[in-house]
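Researcher: We plan to redesign the surface later, but first we want a full-length starting point. Tokens attached.
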């Protein structure tokens, strides 16, 4: 009888160990599969501790979740940010457009727009009561050079009825010209326009570090010490400003010409820099923007459209590579004919006498 009891105990012990083996195997299998366990709780998530990886989990107390994160693109609403669309259309910077949206001046379809709204090409967008045209397909990127005369303002309209720089530009269908920076009322020279608001903002942004060269006539004596001060930097009302280069032009005595270069586009920056040294600017003309110069056959008050290669070089200088809304495309046959006629018109006008422009002085002449 005693022997029979010992045999039964061994049999029960062996049967218990056999039942326990599948639980260990299942725990090891879940560890290899990379599945995380989440204890039941009130919104608190955690991963299983390394020391408990081999222990079996009790049923009803754990919850398995996938280790793969959800796709973020699936939660992003369709369309494009409203302030970005408005800035691309040349209505202002993104920060300015955010303020316009908060002021309630923008509508989407039949409601007032809110900050954070997104729009697509099928939405109707209104700004100050006027509907804006959005193109579903990229259009040809265009950039024109305008030789601005003195006495024109860089605004689309003027309450005083003065002439604006937009009055002499070619008309666009469903688009608008966007000015790349501004020139003062009494400043003449090179001014760029484009139909791509993103390109215009990129060209104007200080991070692009694009140089602008001016020809300036100074009334007053200019010494080497003054020029060095302007190269080192001068504290103005809106911060420190400086010229990156100053080259003597022509003239002697108290009326001299200089070529000077700045890397920013602050308001009246060139004039304020020279005035900080106690001299006066009597004439100011922009002659270069990045790699773009005024061609000899483009007279004051005339414009010329840049070629595909010139636009590509300009975009490369600014670090602009977007092709989403505009692209560098060849002009159509009709556009080519119009551009050729305009080119002939410009060159025919150069037969008359052009205004005198002072030449740069060589380094050897300047040192003498």
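Model: Full-length starting sequence:
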């Amino acid at each position: 009888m005693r022997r029979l009891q010992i045999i039964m105990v061994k049999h029960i012990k062996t049967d218990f160990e056999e039942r326990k083996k599948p639980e260990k195997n299942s725990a090891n299998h879940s560890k290899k599969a990379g599945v995380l366990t989440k204890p039941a709780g009130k919104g608190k998530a955690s991963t299983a501790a390394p020391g408990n990886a081999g222990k079996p989990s009790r049923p009803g107390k754990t919850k398995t979740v996938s280790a793969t994160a959800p796709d973020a693109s699936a939660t992003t609403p369709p369309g494009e940010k409203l302030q970005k669309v408005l800035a691309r259309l040349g209505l202002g910077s993104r920060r300015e457009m955010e303020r316009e949206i908060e002021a309630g001046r923008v509508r989407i379809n039949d409601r007032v727009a809110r900050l954070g709204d997104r729009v697509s090409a099928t939405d109707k967008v209104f700004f100050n009561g006027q509907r804006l045209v959005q193109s579903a397909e990229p259009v040809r990127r265009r950039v024109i050079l305008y030789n601005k005369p003195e006495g024109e303002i860089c605004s689309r309209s003027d309450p005083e009825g003065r002439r604006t720089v937009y009055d002499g530009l070619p008309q666009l269908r469903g688009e608008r010209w966007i000015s790349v920076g501004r020139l003062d009322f009494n400043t003449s020279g090179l001014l760029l326009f484009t139909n791509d608001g993103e390109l215009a903002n990129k060209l104007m942004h200080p991070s692009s570090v694009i140089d602008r060269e001016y020809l300036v006539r100074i009334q007053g004596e200019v010494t080497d010490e003054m020029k060095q001060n302007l190269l080192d930097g001068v504290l103005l009302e809106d911060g420190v400003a400086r010229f990156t280069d100053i080259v003597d032009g022509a003239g002697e005595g108290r009326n001299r010409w200089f070529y000077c270069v700045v890397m920013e586009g602050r308001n009246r920056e060139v004039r304020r820099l020279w005035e900080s040294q106690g001299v006066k600017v009597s004439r100011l003309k922009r002659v270069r923007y990045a790699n773009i110069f005024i061609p000899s056959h483009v007279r004051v008050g005339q414009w010329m459209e840049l070629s595909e290669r010139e636009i590509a070089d300009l975009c490369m200088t600014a670090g602009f590579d977007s092709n989403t809304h505009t692209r560098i495309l060849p002009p159509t046959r009709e556009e080519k004919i119009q551009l050729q006629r305009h080119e002939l018109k410009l060159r025919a006008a150069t037969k008359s006498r052009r205004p005198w422009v002072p030449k740069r002085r060589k380094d050897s002449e300047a040192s003498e």
